[in-house]
Amino acid sequence: MTGKRRKPSDDSFTVFVIDQLGALGAVDARSMFGGKGLYWGDQIFGLIDEGRLYFRVSEGTAGRYEVEGTKPFEPWPGHIMKGHYEGRGIEARVFRWASHQGKRWIG
């Protein structure tokens, strides 16, 4: 990221994200490298860093994030990690999906 932009409380944002994904079951946030890794079971699927939510992507799904105008995770200037894209603009859809489909998907 360019410059530190923190929400007033990153922990309250983490609690909010986990709450929104609650229908998936055991979603956990684990500290890593100054941020949080989001896990479902033993699978990491997202990151929270500097008050921003990033989802893990594949080559096949990264384009969807780019179309939305989101950016890849940049932990420090010039170091772009295209494996995670910012969820801004799509997190509401992911949260809706989790609440409506999540239990059926994992059930």
Can you characterise this structure?
It is globular and about 35 Å long. The longest helix is centred in the last third of the chain and has 16 residues, at 91-106. By secondary structure, it is α+β, with helices and mostly antiparallel strands. A 6-stranded antiparallel β-sheet has the order 1-2-3-4-6-5, covered by helices on one side. The protein contains 3 helices and 6 strands; from the N terminus they run αββββαββα.
What coarse outline follows from CA principal-axis ratios? globular
Determine the structural class based on helices, strands and strand pairing: alpha+beta
Percent range for β-strand residues? 25-35%
- Please give the share of residues in helix: 25-40%
Tell me briefly what this model is.
By secondary structure, the chain is of the alpha+beta class. The protein has helices at residues 10-20, 59-67, 91-106, and strands at residues 27-32, 35-40, 43-49, 52-56, 72-76, 79-86.
Summary keywords:
disordered C terminus; 3 helices; 35% strand; Yope Regulator, Chain: A; globular; 6-stranded antiparallel sheet; 107 residues; alpha+beta
SSE map:
Layout: H1 10-20, E1 27-32, E2 35-40, E3 43-49, E4 52-56, H2 59-67, E5 72-76, E6 79-86, H3 91-106
Antiparallel strand pairs: 1-2, 2-3, 3-4, 4-6, 5-6
